[in-house]
Here is the input.
Amino acid sequence: MTHISRYNTLQRLALALGLAAVGSAQAAESGYAESLYSDFEAASKGQVKFNIQTLRSGAVQDLAGYKLVALTGTPTYTLTTVSNALEIDSAKFDDANMKSLYLEGLDAEVNGFAEAGFPLEKGNFRQLEVQVTMGKDQRTHTAAEFCWADQGHCTVFDPSIEFLDSLINGQRERRAQGWAPTVRGELASAQGLEKAGTCGLASHPTWKAAQITWGSYRVSLRNIYGIEIGHKNIGSAQAGLRCNTSCYPAPYGYSNNSSASIIFPNSVQCDFAHAQGTSGRSGKYIGKTGCSHRFVLGAKFNATAKGVGLGVDVQIDSTGSVHQNGGAYVDTCGYF
Here is the structure.
Protein backbone atom coordinates (compact mmCIF):
# COMPACT_ATOMS: atom_id res chain seq x y z
CA MET A 1 0.00 0.00 0.00
CA THR A 2 1.34 3.39 -1.01
CA HIS A 3 0.95 6.44 1.17
CA ILE A 4 1.04 9.83 -0.52
CA SER A 5 3.04 12.55 1.16
CA ARG A 6 1.58 16.03 1.23
CA TYR A 7 4.99 17.48 0.22
CA ASN A 8 5.16 15.43 -2.98
CA THR A 9 1.54 16.22 -3.73
CA LEU A 10 2.16 19.95 -3.61
CA GLN A 11 5.26 19.60 -5.78
CA ARG A 12 3.28 17.75 -8.43
CA LEU A 13 0.43 20.20 -8.12
CA ALA A 14 2.72 23.14 -8.79
CA LEU A 15 4.17 21.43 -11.85
CA ALA A 16 0.76 20.55 -13.20
CA LEU A 17 -0.55 24.09 -12.77
CA GLY A 18 2.37 25.42 -14.76
CA LEU A 19 1.56 23.13 -17.64
CA ALA A 20 -2.16 23.84 -17.36
CA ALA A 21 -1.66 27.57 -17.63
CA VAL A 22 0.07 27.13 -21.00
CA GLY A 23 -2.92 25.35 -22.50
CA SER A 24 -5.72 27.20 -20.76
CA ALA A 25 -7.02 28.78 -23.96
CA GLN A 26 -7.50 25.35 -25.52
CA ALA A 27 -10.07 24.05 -23.05
CA ALA A 28 -13.79 24.60 -23.50
CA GLU A 29 -16.16 25.10 -20.57
CA SER A 30 -18.18 21.89 -20.68
CA GLY A 31 -20.56 22.57 -17.80
CA TYR A 32 -20.53 18.85 -16.94
CA ALA A 33 -19.09 19.32 -13.47
CA GLU A 34 -21.55 22.13 -12.71
CA SER A 35 -24.48 19.91 -13.69
CA LEU A 36 -23.13 17.08 -11.51
CA TYR A 37 -22.83 19.26 -8.39
CA SER A 38 -26.17 20.92 -9.16
CA ASP A 39 -27.91 17.53 -9.23
CA PHE A 40 -26.19 16.61 -5.96
CA GLU A 41 -27.49 19.83 -4.40
CA ALA A 42 -31.02 19.12 -5.66
CA ALA A 43 -30.94 15.50 -4.46
CA SER A 44 -29.95 16.73 -0.98
CA LYS A 45 -32.93 19.13 -1.05
CA GLY A 46 -30.57 22.03 -0.49
CA GLN A 47 -28.83 20.58 2.57
CA VAL A 48 -25.56 20.75 0.62
CA LYS A 49 -24.73 23.78 -1.54
CA PHE A 50 -21.85 24.09 -3.99
CA ASN A 51 -20.00 26.95 -5.61
CA ILE A 52 -17.72 25.86 -8.48
CA GLN A 53 -14.89 27.94 -9.92
CA THR A 54 -12.44 27.00 -12.69
CA LEU A 55 -8.83 27.47 -11.51
CA ARG A 56 -6.98 26.24 -14.60
CA SER A 57 -7.89 24.50 -17.85
CA GLY A 58 -6.04 22.97 -20.75
CA ALA A 59 -5.38 19.94 -22.90
CA VAL A 60 -5.19 16.55 -21.19
CA GLN A 61 -2.05 15.69 -23.14
CA ASP A 62 -0.23 18.45 -21.26
CA LEU A 63 -0.65 16.33 -18.12
CA ALA A 64 0.79 13.14 -19.64
CA GLY A 65 2.90 11.31 -17.06
CA TYR A 66 1.27 12.95 -14.06
CA LYS A 67 -0.99 11.43 -11.44
CA LEU A 68 -4.42 12.82 -10.52
CA VAL A 69 -3.09 14.00 -7.17
CA ALA A 70 -1.10 16.60 -9.14
CA LEU A 71 -4.39 18.35 -9.92
CA THR A 72 -6.35 17.85 -6.72
CA GLY A 73 -3.82 17.50 -3.91
CA THR A 74 -4.72 15.27 -0.97
CA PRO A 75 -8.09 15.94 0.67
CA THR A 76 -8.30 17.34 4.19
CA TYR A 77 -11.87 16.06 4.55
CA THR A 78 -14.45 13.85 2.89
CA LEU A 79 -18.17 14.49 2.44
CA THR A 80 -20.09 11.33 3.32
CA THR A 81 -23.78 10.82 2.61
CA VAL A 82 -26.76 8.57 3.19
CA SER A 83 -28.52 8.02 -0.13
CA ASN A 84 -31.59 6.16 -1.28
CA ALA A 85 -32.43 5.45 -4.91
CA LEU A 86 -33.16 9.10 -5.79
CA GLU A 87 -32.24 11.34 -2.85
CA ILE A 88 -29.31 12.26 -0.61
CA ASP A 89 -29.69 12.68 3.16
CA SER A 90 -27.52 13.13 6.22
CA ALA A 91 -24.47 14.58 4.48
CA LYS A 92 -21.60 15.36 6.85
CA PHE A 93 -17.95 16.38 6.82
CA ASP A 94 -15.41 13.84 8.05
CA ASP A 95 -11.89 15.13 8.66
CA ALA A 96 -9.26 13.08 6.84
CA ASN A 97 -6.65 11.21 8.86
CA MET A 98 -3.53 12.21 6.93
CA LYS A 99 -1.37 9.56 8.61
CA SER A 100 -3.43 6.64 7.33
CA LEU A 101 -5.07 8.21 4.29
CA TYR A 102 -4.85 6.20 1.11
CA LEU A 103 -7.04 6.95 -1.88
CA GLU A 104 -6.32 4.70 -4.84
CA GLY A 105 -7.67 7.33 -7.23
CA LEU A 106 -4.99 9.83 -6.22
CA ASP A 107 -2.34 7.43 -7.51
CA ALA A 108 -4.14 6.93 -10.82
CA GLU A 109 -2.20 8.23 -13.81
CA VAL A 110 -3.59 10.60 -16.42
CA ASN A 111 -2.12 8.25 -19.06
CA GLY A 112 -4.70 5.68 -17.95
CA PHE A 113 -7.37 7.54 -19.91
CA ALA A 114 -5.65 6.57 -23.17
CA GLU A 115 -5.64 2.91 -22.12
CA ALA A 116 -9.38 3.20 -21.39
CA GLY A 117 -10.07 4.49 -24.91
CA PHE A 118 -9.87 8.25 -24.40
CA PRO A 119 -6.87 9.69 -26.31
CA LEU A 120 -5.01 12.31 -24.30
CA GLU A 121 -4.57 14.56 -27.34
CA LYS A 122 -8.34 14.81 -27.83
CA GLY A 123 -9.30 15.62 -24.25
CA ASN A 124 -9.57 18.80 -22.20
CA PHE A 125 -9.39 19.22 -18.44
CA ARG A 126 -10.39 21.76 -15.83
CA GLN A 127 -9.00 22.09 -12.33
CA LEU A 128 -11.90 23.11 -10.09
CA GLU A 129 -12.23 24.86 -6.76
CA VAL A 130 -15.23 23.32 -5.01
CA GLN A 131 -16.75 25.31 -2.15
CA VAL A 132 -19.13 23.21 -0.05
CA THR A 133 -21.62 24.78 2.37
CA MET A 134 -23.77 22.95 4.91
CA GLY A 135 -25.53 25.32 7.26
CA LYS A 136 -22.87 27.51 8.86
CA ASP A 137 -20.03 25.11 7.96
CA GLN A 138 -18.17 25.96 4.75
CA ARG A 139 -15.15 24.15 3.30
CA THR A 140 -13.17 24.18 0.08
CA HIS A 141 -11.31 21.50 -1.85
CA THR A 142 -10.00 20.86 -5.35
CA ALA A 143 -11.40 18.54 -8.02
CA ALA A 144 -10.71 17.88 -11.72
CA GLU A 145 -12.96 17.50 -14.75
CA PHE A 146 -11.90 15.63 -17.91
CA CYS A 147 -13.88 15.82 -21.16
CA TRP A 148 -13.69 14.30 -24.65
CA ALA A 149 -16.13 16.31 -26.77
CA ASP A 150 -15.79 14.07 -29.84
CA GLN A 151 -16.74 11.03 -27.75
CA GLY A 152 -19.42 12.79 -25.72
CA HIS A 153 -17.74 11.76 -22.49
CA CYS A 154 -16.91 13.68 -19.32
CA THR A 155 -15.92 12.62 -15.83
CA VAL A 156 -15.08 14.36 -12.56
CA PHE A 157 -12.48 13.23 -10.05
CA ASP A 158 -13.33 14.60 -6.62
CA PRO A 159 -11.32 12.94 -3.84
CA SER A 160 -13.46 14.62 -1.16
CA ILE A 161 -16.78 13.13 -2.37
CA GLU A 162 -16.70 9.36 -2.68
CA PHE A 163 -17.69 8.14 -6.17
CA LEU A 164 -19.38 11.44 -7.08
CA ASP A 165 -19.91 10.47 -10.73
CA SER A 166 -21.32 7.06 -9.80
CA LEU A 167 -23.65 8.52 -7.18
CA ILE A 168 -25.26 11.17 -9.37
CA ASN A 169 -25.28 9.28 -12.67
CA GLY A 170 -26.84 6.30 -10.91
CA GLN A 171 -29.66 8.50 -9.61
CA ARG A 172 -30.13 9.99 -13.08
CA GLU A 173 -30.47 6.52 -14.60
CA ARG A 174 -32.98 5.33 -12.00
CA ARG A 175 -35.05 8.50 -12.42
CA ALA A 176 -35.05 8.06 -16.21
CA GLN A 177 -36.15 4.43 -15.75
CA GLY A 178 -39.08 5.56 -13.60
CA TRP A 179 -37.92 4.09 -10.29
CA ALA A 180 -40.24 5.15 -7.48
CA PRO A 181 -41.76 3.69 -4.30
CA THR A 182 -45.23 2.26 -4.91
CA VAL A 183 -48.26 2.69 -2.63
CA ARG A 184 -51.13 0.21 -2.78
CA GLY A 185 -54.31 -0.16 -0.76
CA GLU A 186 -57.14 -2.63 -0.28
CA LEU A 187 -60.72 -1.37 -0.20
CA ALA A 188 -62.57 -1.74 3.06
CA SER A 189 -65.93 -3.54 3.32
CA ALA A 190 -68.84 -3.15 5.72
CA GLN A 191 -68.28 -5.02 9.00
CA GLY A 192 -71.94 -5.68 9.82
CA LEU A 193 -74.98 -3.80 11.08
CA GLU A 194 -73.78 -3.90 14.67
CA LYS A 195 -70.82 -1.65 13.77
CA ALA A 196 -71.23 2.09 13.40
CA GLY A 197 -69.61 2.48 10.00
CA THR A 198 -66.87 0.70 8.05
CA CYS A 199 -63.46 -0.14 9.47
CA GLY A 200 -60.69 1.59 7.59
CA LEU A 201 -57.40 3.42 7.87
CA ALA A 202 -57.30 6.94 9.24
CA SER A 203 -55.15 8.02 6.30
CA HIS A 204 -57.51 6.37 3.76
CA PRO A 205 -60.90 5.62 5.37
CA THR A 206 -62.01 3.57 2.35
CA TRP A 207 -58.98 1.27 2.66
CA LYS A 208 -58.58 -1.59 5.13
CA ALA A 209 -54.89 -2.08 4.31
CA ALA A 210 -52.06 -0.10 2.73
CA GLN A 211 -48.41 -0.67 1.97
CA ILE A 212 -45.36 1.13 0.57
CA THR A 213 -42.86 -0.92 -1.45
CA TRP A 214 -39.35 0.21 -2.28
CA GLY A 215 -38.00 -1.82 -5.19
CA SER A 216 -34.44 -3.13 -5.27
CA TYR A 217 -31.80 -1.24 -7.22
CA ARG A 218 -28.18 -1.61 -8.27
CA VAL A 219 -25.36 0.86 -7.63
CA SER A 220 -22.32 0.75 -9.90
CA LEU A 221 -19.13 2.20 -8.40
CA ARG A 222 -16.75 3.25 -11.18
CA ASN A 223 -13.24 4.67 -11.15
CA ILE A 224 -12.11 7.77 -13.01
CA TYR A 225 -11.66 5.76 -16.24
CA GLY A 226 -15.27 4.54 -16.17
CA ILE A 227 -14.33 1.00 -15.15
CA GLU A 228 -16.57 -0.64 -12.55
CA ILE A 229 -14.50 -1.51 -9.47
CA GLY A 230 -17.43 -2.34 -7.22
CA HIS A 231 -21.18 -2.54 -6.95
CA LYS A 232 -24.02 -2.68 -4.46
CA ASN A 233 -27.25 -4.64 -4.84
CA ILE A 234 -29.65 -2.80 -2.54
CA GLY A 235 -32.50 -5.08 -1.50
CA SER A 236 -36.20 -4.31 -1.68
CA ALA A 237 -38.30 -3.38 1.35
CA GLN A 238 -41.95 -3.03 2.21
CA ALA A 239 -43.92 -1.51 5.11
CA GLY A 240 -47.66 -1.85 5.55
CA LEU A 241 -50.58 -2.12 7.94
CA ARG A 242 -53.86 -4.02 7.81
CA CYS A 243 -56.96 -3.60 9.96
CA ASN A 244 -58.08 -7.01 11.20
CA THR A 245 -61.66 -8.21 11.61
CA SER A 246 -61.79 -6.53 15.04
CA CYS A 247 -60.54 -3.26 13.50
CA TYR A 248 -57.17 -3.44 15.25
CA PRO A 249 -53.85 -2.90 13.44
CA ALA A 250 -51.72 -5.73 12.09
CA PRO A 251 -48.45 -4.30 10.76
CA TYR A 252 -46.60 -6.27 8.08
CA GLY A 253 -43.70 -5.95 5.67
CA TYR A 254 -40.14 -7.05 4.98
CA SER A 255 -36.61 -5.85 4.30
CA ASN A 256 -34.48 -8.03 2.05
CA ASN A 257 -30.76 -8.50 2.35
CA SER A 258 -28.39 -6.23 0.42
CA SER A 259 -25.01 -7.30 -0.94
CA ALA A 260 -21.91 -5.58 -2.28
CA SER A 261 -18.41 -6.17 -3.60
CA ILE A 262 -15.47 -3.86 -4.31
CA ILE A 263 -11.75 -4.12 -5.01
CA PHE A 264 -9.15 -3.58 -2.28
CA PRO A 265 -8.30 -1.18 -0.65
CA ASN A 266 -11.88 0.17 -0.96
CA SER A 267 -14.35 -1.46 1.40
CA VAL A 268 -18.08 -2.22 1.70
CA GLN A 269 -20.45 -3.67 4.32
CA CYS A 270 -24.19 -4.45 4.21
CA ASP A 271 -26.97 -5.27 6.68
CA PHE A 272 -30.76 -5.15 7.13
CA ALA A 273 -33.35 -5.18 9.92
CA HIS A 274 -37.06 -4.61 10.52
CA ALA A 275 -39.47 -4.15 13.42
CA GLN A 276 -43.17 -3.72 14.12
CA GLY A 277 -45.31 -2.55 17.01
CA THR A 278 -48.81 -1.49 18.00
CA SER A 279 -50.45 0.78 20.56
CA GLY A 280 -54.22 0.62 20.81
CA ARG A 281 -55.65 0.97 17.32
CA SER A 282 -52.41 2.37 15.87
CA GLY A 283 -49.56 0.39 14.40
CA LYS A 284 -46.15 0.82 12.77
CA TYR A 285 -43.87 -1.26 10.58
CA ILE A 286 -40.33 -0.21 9.68
CA GLY A 287 -37.66 -1.96 7.63
CA LYS A 288 -34.30 -0.81 6.26
CA THR A 289 -31.61 -2.46 4.17
CA GLY A 290 -28.42 -1.10 2.64
CA CYS A 291 -24.66 -0.96 2.28
CA SER A 292 -21.85 1.46 3.08
CA HIS A 293 -18.67 2.05 1.08
CA ARG A 294 -15.36 3.83 1.64
CA PHE A 295 -12.33 4.68 -0.48
CA VAL A 296 -10.34 2.95 2.29
CA LEU A 297 -10.83 0.06 4.70
CA GLY A 298 -13.35 0.27 7.52
CA ALA A 299 -16.75 0.68 5.83
CA LYS A 300 -19.53 -0.15 8.29
CA PHE A 301 -23.30 -0.58 7.97
CA ASN A 302 -25.02 -2.19 10.95
CA ALA A 303 -28.84 -2.18 11.15
CA THR A 304 -30.44 -2.82 14.56
CA ALA A 305 -34.15 -3.07 15.41
CA LYS A 306 -35.06 -1.32 18.68
CA GLY A 307 -38.04 -0.06 20.65
CA VAL A 308 -41.59 -1.17 21.37
CA GLY A 309 -45.07 -0.06 20.32
CA LEU A 310 -45.08 2.95 18.04
CA GLY A 311 -41.53 3.65 19.19
CA VAL A 312 -40.04 0.80 17.14
CA ASP A 313 -37.17 1.89 14.94
CA VAL A 314 -34.26 0.58 12.88
CA GLN A 315 -31.08 2.38 13.81
CA ILE A 316 -28.17 2.47 11.38
CA ASP A 317 -24.57 2.65 12.61
CA SER A 318 -22.44 3.46 9.59
CA THR A 319 -19.00 4.57 8.52
CA GLY A 320 -18.53 5.82 4.96
CA SER A 321 -21.17 6.70 2.38
CA VAL A 322 -24.42 4.76 2.44
CA HIS A 323 -26.98 3.56 -0.08
CA GLN A 324 -30.11 2.21 1.57
CA ASN A 325 -33.75 1.35 1.00
CA GLY A 326 -36.93 1.15 3.02
CA GLY A 327 -38.76 3.21 5.59
CA ALA A 328 -41.77 3.17 7.89
CA TYR A 329 -45.55 3.06 7.63
CA VAL A 330 -47.67 4.28 10.55
CA ASP A 331 -51.48 4.35 10.58
CA THR A 332 -54.57 3.95 12.75
CA CYS A 333 -57.61 1.72 12.33
CA GLY A 334 -61.08 3.08 13.06
CA TYR A 335 -64.76 3.13 12.04
CA PHE A 336 -65.73 5.73 9.50
The helical segments are 6-22, 32-43, 69-72, 112-115, 164-176. The chain is about 15% helix and 45% strand.
